């Protein structure tokens, strides 16, 4: 029983990590604040559910189809909307996410409406979820360190200067949205196979806000920070489930504590590398809190 619970937590963690990586690319590395990525998770979840239940498509193909459909819709949505910048796009993304949820909720003939979609095969095992996460994590690492990743960061730091330097910032912003939607679509498809039942309410504004909070918590512009933040917040939610009336209080307290003590997030824009660990250790040894040095004096 304990092993089953542990594998369930690892599976859910892998799903959350995939979704968080997608939001991290768009918000952390491209610098566009979003409040609607739960809508892309919903598209991926319902696409995989319908393909596996109604058409008996293999779950791997259904998961990828959910990601691809989310990617295509995000690209089409991004062409007109990403002309907006700053808070304006955040407001638009909020409306788009809710629009997707409401369409799913009212399209009874296809999605079965607000009652939810039952009978989904339990195809998301721990092995499947972790395998998808590892592959997508490696791909994200290479993407961030490629010329596309540098272009995304240029759009984040100063999109006007990037445009003057010859970057097609509009193209890279839309591309970032499409890739991030693919990650969220895959995460939603995996979630459908893990839960075996989905409802539109599972992909509401609260879910979108949770994804952004995880990215900010870990550090904008840090892949390892995103992974660390997702792991901490997922474990906080799951480990405190026995005291369900207090677990969201603990979740909120952890968020507030980190934002007060470290506003830039756990990792900021740094990556967890051996060189970074050595710098942190050296800084800690030099700090007054580390105690007297070898000669007996204070540091």
UniProtKB/TrEMBL annotation:
Keywords: Cell membrane, Membrane, Transmembrane, Transmembrane helix. InterPro entries: ABC_transp_permease, LivM-like. The chain crosses the membrane at residues 6-26, 33-53, 59-78, 124-144, 174-194, 214-236, 248-266. It comes from the Bacteria. It holds the Pfam family BPD_transp_2. It is a multi-pass membrane protein. Signal peptide: none annotated. Its main location: membrane. GO terms for molecular function: branched-chain amino acid transmembrane transporter activity. The keyword NADP does not apply. GO terms for cellular component: plasma membrane. It is found in: Cell membrane. This is Amino acid/amide ABC transporter membrane protein 2, HAAT family (TC 3.A.1.4.-). The lineage of its organism: Bacteria, Thermotogati, Synergistota, Synergistia, Synergistales.
């Amino acid at each position: 029983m304990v092993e089953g619970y542990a594998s369930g937590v690892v599976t859910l963690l892998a799903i959350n990590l995939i979704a968080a990586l997608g939001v991290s690319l768009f918000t952390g590395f491209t610098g566009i604040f979003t409040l609607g990525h739960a809508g892309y998770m919903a598209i991926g979840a319902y696409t995989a559910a319908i393909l596996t239940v109604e058409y008996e498509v293999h779950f791997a193909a259904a998961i990828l189809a959910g990601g691809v459909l989310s990617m295509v819709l995000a690209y089409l949505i991004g062409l007109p909307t990403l002309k907006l910048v700053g808070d304006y796009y955040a407001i638009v993304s909020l409306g788009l996410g809710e629009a997707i949820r409401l369409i799913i909720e009212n399209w009874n003939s296809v999605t079965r409406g607000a009652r939810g979609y039952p009978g989904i095969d339990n195809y998301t095992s721990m092995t499947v979820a972790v395998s998808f996460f590892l592959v997508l994590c490696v791909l994200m690492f290479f993407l961030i360190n490629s010329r596309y990743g540098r272009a995304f960061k240029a759009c984040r730091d100063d999109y006007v200067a990037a445009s003057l330097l010859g970057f097609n910032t509009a193209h890279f912003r839309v591309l970032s949205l499409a890739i991030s939607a693919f990650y969220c679509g895959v995460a939603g498809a995996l979630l459908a196979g893990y839960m075996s039942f989905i409802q539109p309410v599972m992909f509401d504004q609260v879910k979108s806000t949770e994804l952004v909070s995880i990215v900010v918590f870990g550090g904008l512009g840090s892949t390892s920070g995103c992974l660390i933040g997702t792991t901490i917040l997922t474990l906080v939610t799951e480990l405190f489930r026995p005291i369900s009336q207090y677990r969201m209080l603990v979740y909120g307290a952890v968020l507030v504590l980190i934002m007060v003590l470290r506003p830039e997030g756990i990792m900021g824009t740094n990556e967890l590398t051996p060189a970074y660990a050595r710098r942190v250790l050296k800084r800690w040894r030099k700090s007054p809190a580390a105690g007297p040095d070898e000669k007996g004096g204070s540091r």
